[in-house]
Specification:
- The structure is a single chain.
- The chain has one domain: Uracil-DNA glycosylase-like domain (Uracil-DNA Glycosylase, subunit E, 3-Layer(aba) Sandwich).
- It is built from seven helices and five strands.
- The protein has a five-stranded mixed beta sheet with strand order 2-1-3-5-4, with helices on both faces.
- It binds iron/sulfur cluster.
Length: 213
């Protein structure tokens, strides 16, 4: 069953058959892993919402916390800490004591997809959770990490995907109170190839700080 309207998260959701079957397989191979839908992290009344793609196999899927435990979170948490959004610069485990400040992190798809590639139907099915979360939060700024996250945010707002074009550094008025800012995803590939550098990411967070005041 797809998410009920207004439901932000369901820990036992199995609405995507391919992902539910994949997670069962992962649980067999890695019984110590979370291997289930990964909840958002951070306070619901935060003014900044960061939307990524989906949990990584040995990161969020293992630890149960977004961008925690693998390379994808290295630049993100460093930068969050530098700009006062995180209590520590490193996110290693769900019980490491790190807290987010005025910031919440979620994913467009809450379950680990094979090869990190959710199919369109899965993005659509999980979008109800994101839509409900955005409605409950009413964030001032949403940072989209990558085009799939950008498109999921538009879908959650009921906007045509062609209405706002994704580009790194682009800013869009999502509605009267929410600004959408696009960034390349802070993946290992993008940071190691320097498609996304610490300077570029820092510049975006400096702008976010200016917007939040
Ligand atoms: S990806 Fe989302 S909708 Fe699909 S099974 Fe996981 S939590 Fe449910």
């Amino acid at each position: 069953m797809p998410p009920e309207p207004h439901e932000i998260f369901a820990a036992d959701c199995r609405a995507c058959p391919r992902l539910a079957a994949f997670l069962e397989d992962v649980r067999t191979k890695h019984p110590e892993y979370h291997a289930a839908p990964v909840p958002s992290f951070g306070p619901l009344d935060a003014r900044l919402l960061i939307v990524g793609l989906a949990p990584g196999m040995h990161g969020a899927n293992a630890t149960g916390r977004p961008f925690t435990g693998d390379y994808a979170g290295v630049l993100l948490y460093q930068t969050l800490h530098e700009h006062g959004f995180a209590s520590a610069p490193e996110s290693t485990r769900a019980d490491d004591g790190l807290e987010l400040v005025d910031c919440r992190i979620t994913n467009a798809v809450k379950c680990l997809p094979p090869q990190n590639k959710p199919i369109t139907e899965e993005i659509r099915t999980c979008n109800g959770f994101l839509a409900a979360e955005m409605t409950a939060m009413q964030p001032r700024v949403i940072l989209a990490l990558g085009k799939i996250a950008h498109d999921a945010i538009l879908r959650a707002k009921g906007l045509p995907l062609s209405s706002l074009r994704f580009a790194h550094g682009a800013e869009h008025e999502l509605d009267a109170q929410t600004r959408l800012i696009d960034s390349y995803h802070c993946s290992r590939y993008n940071t190691q190839t320097r498609r996304l550098t610490p300077t570029m990411f820092n510049e975006l967070f400096a702008r976010i700080r200016t917007h939040l005041g």
